[in-house]
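User: My collaborator and I are trying to settle a disagreement about how two of our proteins should look. Neither of us wants to argue from intuition anymore, so we agreed to look at predicted structures for both before our next call. Could you fold the first one, then the second, and keep them clearly separated?

Assistant: That sounds like a sensible way to settle it. I'll keep them separate. The first protein:
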Amino acid sequence: MKKHTCFISLLLAISILLCFSANIFAGGSDEPIPDPNAPAYTNYSDLWVSAGGSTYTSGYSSTTQNRTTCYMRLRWFKFSYCSECVMPSGNYIYSRLYTSSNTKASNNASFSGVTNPGNYNYLYLSGYGSSGQSYKLKTNSSYATTGYRAQFDWSANPHP
């Protein structure tokens, strides 16, 4: 009986490991498909934002030369109690680039829905966008009733 229990435990452990490895190799909708024309130092960020709050990315993107614009694209989003990629009527998800000291560095990007890869470039504010500067992205929404999850492609450099 002890061998039988050990064998069942071993099968169960192998089954669990196979399920996890199948999910890892399958990728899924959370796996970003990189834009072949994406600008240098493009980040693919998956952010959770609480109701009425805002969130910064943990990663940074740096300018490769002096820039007047940066790139921000809303790839996917979901508000609690709403369908995927459905924006509550009349609301927006916003993003903008900030310095490491949380100073605004770019104009706000306003998204009423997902955007395709392409020329979604936004102006830097005066004094920002110099070569070698690093920025992070911050997001918030005008819909403060529930939290949301959002996925962004973004870079300190413009989309070509």
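The second protein, kept apart from the first:
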Amino acid sequence: MSQALPDSTISTDETMRRHFWRNYLAHSIEGGLASGGMAFIAADTIAPPLIKSLGGPTWLISLTPVLFTLGIMIPPLFTAHKLERLQQFKPLVLGTALLGRLLFLIAGLILLLISPQGAGLAIVVVVGAQFLAGLCNGTTLSAWQGLVAKTVPHDRLSSMWAARYTISTLLGILAGGVVAVVLAKNPGLSGFGMLYLIAFGFGIGSAIAFSFIYEPKLPVSNVETRSLVENLRRVPGLVRNDRRLSNYILSSALMNGSMIMIPFMSIHSLQVTGMSASFLGLLVSAQMVGAIGGNVIAGLFGNRNGGIAPMFIGRVLFIVTCLGAILAHAQWQVLAVFVLYGMSSSCNLIGSSTMNITLSPSHDRTTYLSIISAVTIPCMLIASALSTVVWNGTQSFSVLGIAALGSVALSTYFLLKIGSGRAASAD
């Protein structure tokens, strides 16, 4: 019987295909459990009302939905020059992921143990856990994206992302019911502490699934060794010379304008319906039901047409979400808005996850990915600042919705320009 050839003697594409189903399923389950667990402490639905109930300032409420993402986006530009030299990504990614999960365990225990009068400490714990967990994941974000790129063929990326998010949305529907029951029976900090512990449990499950990913041992690539300063100096030229990249960056930057409205959407929903905090569970479930539909749409269009199609659909859906959120007052109307929001979010997420990898040439993948991530940071901060200023100045959710709508509409314009832009030189 002939012996199978080692990975180093066959092409990258053949190596991917050899271990395809193992890696496809492992990536899908890992991501589904991780994102599904985060639904129990959803930064855009659960966290803002929690911060508000604890007496947190408006600027912090505005910042809460993006804290985890900001933590993820900060490190890559400073670590890309190191990570692109690695031949094995998996051990480092798994280690930082476990550290990030541990923070939710600590946060949950603290929220369970502190007294109801410890509002200040509770705010620090919630904010700190979200941001620091993001930093842990962001430190090796480019390595994780590189791992995905070397283990899943490009023509299967969109369906893989869709599978991940379908699992997470199914868990999110479950999360909605659990959130409603937990907060109804355990109002206050103890209930939120329980939700953080549940998120930790799912995070450990995702780490176990991640350990099953097979990372092929490919030949050592001839990657030019660069210092941090040298790599940063290359960034303006890379953006200037690749029009597809520059248009994508502009589109992604303006899409962050959605965060002008999102921090106050669940708060506004509770106000207009007159419901208690337990209604947040139904909002999470509605959002996840919509996300399932978005996953199906994005998976079908993404495999066939790449990342631009699902991103376009997602942006159009978000514009409709803005209008609906402004007009909705009845409970069923608010739930319908969150269904649309879920569809929009999943389409944008799957589309951008696909585009991030397919747009980046293999010889500069970690640097491209870090550029895309880094641009998000100031845009999210600007959106949060605008959200704070508008809310403090007008107390009008309608103004927030219109501002978000305008930014996303402009984002859609630059998205459509990507297809006609000039790409970077071939690998």
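Some points you might bring to the call about the second protein. DSSP finds 19 helices and no strands in the chain. Residues 1-11 have pLDDT under 50 and may be disordered.
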